[in-house]
TrEMBL record:
The keyword Repeat applies. NCBIfam families: PPR. The keyword Repeat applies. InterPro entries: PPR_rpt, TPR-like_helical_dom_sf. This is Pentatricopeptide repeat-containing protein. PROSITE patterns: PPR. It holds the Pfam family PPR_2. Keywords: Repeat. SUPFAM superfamilies: TPR-like. It comes from the Eukaryota. Belongs to the PPR family. P subfamily. PPR repeats lie at residues 178-208, 212-246, 247-281, 317-351, 352-386.
């Protein structure tokens, strides 16, 4: 009896210790998140390049804090926060100079992504050269893909090929380029829907780099993204003629192509064909079909397919739930969509940006501004930071529905979180504020943007200039002009930032 009592006591002690360790681990994790948010806010708020960033980094991030994971998370947050790319580069350079810091491919790739997104290509090449000399093992196919994709997007076909050649001859020294590198080059054109260029590269280089099934799927995906279903089917048959056997990725691409064009019956036919040829459907296959059912407003089939996930012993993720959520929204069944969102929460399936974006769209159409304001408040209470596309959509909706106060609240929330909202969001907010004669607040938001090293658009400048002159606030006009001139001298501008094209693909890749 004594033995059992002692054993029970020891077991209770073990359980207590385990629970205590879990609490400590959770607290430590929360502490780290708070610290990351603090550092991101400090970097984003810093008036670089007017003042050097390095002394602040020395003071706020002493070398012992520079763990691999910590730096990766800070850089990831800077990317999501639309920070000035040169600030992220300053941070990464500071880390590289520390003997205590061990750089990772992920940190390098995030810095490269931030620089190329803002078209700082000279700095991006400078970073690559620095890594080549000091940490060549960090050079990966992903870093090559980031650079080539951005060059393909913003520069010419010839410049993209030159960049590929430069990487082969001067960067990836000692690496013999083969099919994997060729696939990266093809993907750069395909992700930008430049299929003529992709075809040209394929025809020009396939004899040197023998294609594999991944090569063919990359091209097939490119034709799908360009919206040409005939080209998708023609190339699929070309794959067969070249001796390539389709895999589940091939089928997923074709199914998605048919779903996006509203040919849901053809997509289901391919789904059934997969079973006949022993090509197992994946969670992605079924998720695509659920979304396709929603596009043709066949909610019964969408629910049936969602149940099939469990039947096939697969685990639904945010993507699967979002597909069903989208189907319910398209069928105008907001009540069921809200219930599904609650179910996600109960099952610990994360509400991501697509979840919120989809729900906001549905509530905008059915419940109007009051419904949107309610979901917006819930999102903020959960400390969720929406991505660019959702921020721009909300800002526009708030301002168009005479709730510019909510637009200003969203702006303040993002800034407090260490984010520098996209310039298109600023365009909408400044327009809304000026239309309601709240020029001081419009000026304040614009100044916040420029203080963080980001350009404002000509639209914002001209609007503020006109209203401030009418108000006799000539000192503010002069301050605005001075800040803009400094930024133009110190920082290269880009069409994306001066006009404000809210591309969401950039922010969702991290």
């Amino acid at each position: 009896m004594m033995y059992l009592t002692n054993r029970s006591s020891k077991l209770n002690q073990f359980v207590h210790i385990k629970q205590k360790l879990s609490i400590i681990k959770l607290y430590s994790s929360l502490e780290t998140e708070v610290e990351i948010e603090r550092i991101v806010r400090i970097i984003n708020d810093h008036p670089y390049p007017n003042k050097p960033l390095l002394p602040t980094l020395h003071k706020q991030i002493p070398p012992p804090l520079l763990s691999t994971t910590f730096v990766e998370k800070v850089l990831g947050s800077l990317f999501g926060a639309h920070s000035n790319g040169l600030k992220a580069y300053e941070l990464f350079k500071y880390c590289l100079h520390s003997n205590l810091y061990k750089p990772s491919s992920d940190a390098f790739e995030k810095t490269l992504h931030i620089l190329t997104r803002m078209r700082y290509f000279d700095k991006a090449w400078e970073l690559i050269e620095r890594i080549k000399r000091a940490h060549p093992s960090l050079l990966t196919l992903k870093s090559m893909s980031i650079m080539l994709s951005r060059i393909a997007k913003f520069k010419s076909y010839e410049e993209t090929l030159e960049a590929f050649e430069r990487m082969e001859k001067n960067v990836f020294i000692g690496t013999k380029f083969g099919t994997n590198e060729f696939n990266v080059l093809l993907r750069a054109f395909c992700t930008q829907r430049q299929m003529k260029e992709a075809r040209s590269v394929f025809n020009k280089m396939h004899s040197r780099f023998p294609p594999d099934v991944k090569t063919m799927n990359i091209l097939l995906l490119g034709f799908k993204e360009s919206g040409d279903i005939t080209a998708v089917e023609l190339f699929y048959h070309e794959m067969g003629r070249r001796g390539f056997k389709p895999n589940n990725i091939t089928y997923n691409i074709r199914i998605d192509a048919y779903c996006k064009k509203g040919h849901f019956g053809d997509a289901l036919r391919l789904f059934e064909e997969m079973g006949r040829v022993n090509c197992s459907p994946t969670l992605e296959t079924i998720t695509t079909l659920i979304h396709g059912a929603g596009l043709v407003r066949n909610i019964t089939k969408a629910k049936e397919l969602f149940e099939e996930i469990h039947i096939r012993k697969l685990e639904p993720d945010s993507g699967a739930y979002n597909a069903l959520l989208s189907s319910l929204i398209r069928s105008k069944d907001i009540t069921s969509a809200i219930t599904l969102m609650d179910e996600m929460e109960k099952r610990n399936i994360e509400h991501d940006n697509i979840t919120y974006h989809t729900m906001f769209l549905g509530i905008m159409r059915s419940k109007g501004i009051d419904g949107v304001a309610k979901l917006y408040t819930k999102m903020i209470e959960r400390n969720f930071v929406p991505k660019t596309r959702t921020v721009v959509m909300l800002m526009k909706f708030f301002c168009e529905n005479c709730r510019v106060d909510l637009g200003l609240d969203l702006w303040d929330y993002l800034v407090k979180k260490g984010h520098c909202p996209h310039s298109h969001a600023l365009d909408i907010l400044v327009t809304g504020l000026c239309a309601r004669e709240r020029v001081e607040e419009a000026f304040g938001c614009s100044r916040q943007m420029m203080e963080r090293g980001r350009h404002v658009s000509e639209l914002v400048f001209q609007m503020l200039e006109r209203f401030l002159v009418e108000m006799g606030e000539l000192e503010k006009v002069e301050e605005l002009e001075c800040m803009m001139k400094k930024l133009k001298l110190l920082l290269p501008s880009s069409r994306e930032h001066s006009i404000g094209n809210p591309s969401c693909s950039d922010t969702e890749q991290m």
